[in-house]
Specification:
single chain; 295 residues; alpha/beta; Rossmann fold; Pantoate--beta-alanine Ligase, Chain: A,domain 2; 2 domains; six-stranded parallel beta sheet; four-stranded antiparallel beta sheet; 10 helices; binds adenosine monophosphate
């Protein structure tokens, strides 16, 4: 695997179809599952590792974001990554960027509403990665549901010649969605956090049993979460095409949640369809051995 720090070096010596997996590092099996999807589809697999200051609305969140670049590189190499693009902030932002990519309609709800400026930062950095690295396809996790819709719409709206692919959410065997932030959870906070996935699974069960009301589905998640010491920010059923709020599941959507367990902010979702099918993600057979712990 080649480790490079500049866009120019990343574009050198690659053949055939190139796939990009953007990450902020501190990798877990969820990230690596995206690398494997990329591996199946492309001749050259590239990952990027960059903790993007532009998408952090809270400076203390940026400061404490976990980092372990050497371990990330070893994991990526093992997963079959060919090129790791790990730029310094100066390569990405040699000067204050005066150009921003913004999708106001998509950023008005959920993560966008709770984290002002977050999606402008995401869309801008992903646009830079697409422009600078010129991948043919890019793989994102559907764990970050709204982000996946934002990036897909940005690429389509701006005619970017890149196919955006979504990978399923990878979960611990007990349901907790893998996240770089899980490492911050104490045992008690981790147990409480399970209320999130339990609530989402209850909602998916209800959809499979015929429920279509957003209020009823959101209520099931809120009920499960209220049994735990969780500080809930939102639980919303959203349109999968544009993230607007749905009152009835009459088109493909996702039910998304943000909650804090202790001081750690977690997000999760299930994708739901009006035909009664649900995409709950995939579960590891055994507790994760990477960051985030199996409890
Ligand atoms: P991050 O490093 O958190 O910015 O995540 C990098 C990519 O990995 C994003 O596309 C995320 O959606 C994806 N990702 C994060 N957690 C998971 C997970 N548990 N399962 C699948 N993809 C994930």
């Amino acid at each position: 695997m080649r480790v490079v720090g500049t866009f120019g070096a990343a574009r050198e010596r690659r053949g055939g179809i190139t796939a990009l997996v953007p990450t902020m590092g501190y990798l877990h099996e969820g990230h690596l599952s995206l690398v494997r999807i990329a591996r199946e589809r492309a001749d050259t697999v590239m990952a990027s590792l960059f903790v993007n200051p532009l998408q952090f609305d809270d400076p203390s969140d940026l400061d404490r974001y976990p980092r372990d670049a050497a371990r990330d590189a070893a994991l990526l190499e093992e997963a079959g990554c060919d090129v790791l693009f790990a730029p310094q902030v100066e390569e990405m932002y040699p000067s204050e960027p005066l150009t921003r990519v913004t999708l106001p309609a998509l950023a008005a709800t959920m993560e966008g509403a709770h984290r002002p400026g977050h999606f402008d930062g995401v869309a801008t950095v992903v646009a830079k990665l697409f422009a600078g690295l010129q991948p043919d396809l890019a793989v994102f996790g559907r764990k970050d549901a709204q982000q996946f819709v934002v990036v897909s719409r940005m690429a389509a709206d701006l005619s970017m010649p890149v196919e955006v692919i979504g990978g399923p959410t990878l979960r611990e065997a007990d349901g907790l969605a893998l996240s770089s932030r899980n490492v911050f959870l104490s045992d008690a906070e981790r147990r409480a956090a399970l209320g999130i996935s339990r609530g989402l699974m209850a909602a998916a069960d209800a959809v499979e049993a015929g429920e279509r009301s957003a209020a009823a589905l959101e209520g099931l998640v809120l009920e499960e979460m209220s049994r735990q010491a969780l500080d809930v920010e939102y639980a919303e059923l959203a349109d999968a095409a544009d993230t607007s709020r749905l009152t009835v599941l009459d088109r493909p959507g996702f039910l998304a949640v943000a909650a804090r367990s202790g001081s750690t902010r977690l997000i999760d979702n299930v994708w739901l369809r009006p035909d009664g099918s649900a995409d709950r993600g995939a579960r590891l057979g055994a507790p994760s051995v990477l960051y985030g712990g199996g409890g």
